[in-house]
Q: What sequence folds into this?
């Protein structure tokens, strides 16, 4: 199972990559815009923070076929471990097919149905990124889409991985992994909710108080 920080905020990336065993970072144009840093600079600085052996999923902004091709080739040239995110529009699927044939590492993103995931995987995408919470918001079931994608991949022996995104609560992340999802892109806010629990903090404080009350020191 893989864990990616879903952010372009360099401070948050540095903070969480120092705590958790992450596999890389995922970002999109909205996250980049929110961080106030253009994609090219963001990718460079992210690798400086997390190391060149990690993976960064960086997205094109273009929406028509020719421009998607140009931007994807540019993004791919930035680093050997960049995975180019391309939305699974018709223009995007057309581009994925061409670029995958060139050997590009592609993450098919904004996947809303298992059908779209099937088409992107068949076109050669290395990752499929279903938007779990956004699927839930249109009265569908994001985790069921993930489960269908995983079954499809396993049935056909494809090497494609399912990289879940757009999580809004820790339960969605847990259910995603229970459904067989291969990797999750999780926001810093949600990482905090997943990693911490009041019961754990209270237990640690209690252990400290008991030890200090008996020995008067933290020395073991």
A:
């Amino acid at each position: 199972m893989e864990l990616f920080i879903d952010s372009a905020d360099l401070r948050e990336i540095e903070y969480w990559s120092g705590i958790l065993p992450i596999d890389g970072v995922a970002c999109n144009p909205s996250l980049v815009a929110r961080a106030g840093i253009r994609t090219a600079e963001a990718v460079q600085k992210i690798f400086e923070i997390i190391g060149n052996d990690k993976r960064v999923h960086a997205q094109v902004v273009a929406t028509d076929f020719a421009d998607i091709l140009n931007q994807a080739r540019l993004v791919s040239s930035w680093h050997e471990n960049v995975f180019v995110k391309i939305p699974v529009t018709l223009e995007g699927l057309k581009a994925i097919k061409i670029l995958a044939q060139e050997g590009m590492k592609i993450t098919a993103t904004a996947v809303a149905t298992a059908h779209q995931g099937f088409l992107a995987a068949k076109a050669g995408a290395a990752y499929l990124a279903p938007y779990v919470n956004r699927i839930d918001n249109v009265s569908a079931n994001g985790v069921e889409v993930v489960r269908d994608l995983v079954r499809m991949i396993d049935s056909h022996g494809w090497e494609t991985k399912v990289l879940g995104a757009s999580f809004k609560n820790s339960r969605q992340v847990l259910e995603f992994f229970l459904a067989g999802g291969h990797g999750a892109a999780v926001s810093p806010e949600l990482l905090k909710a997943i990693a911490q629990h009041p019961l754990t903090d209270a237990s640690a404080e209690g252990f400290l108080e008991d030890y200090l009350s008996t020995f008067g020191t933290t020395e073991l």
About this structure: The chain has a mean pLDDT of 97.
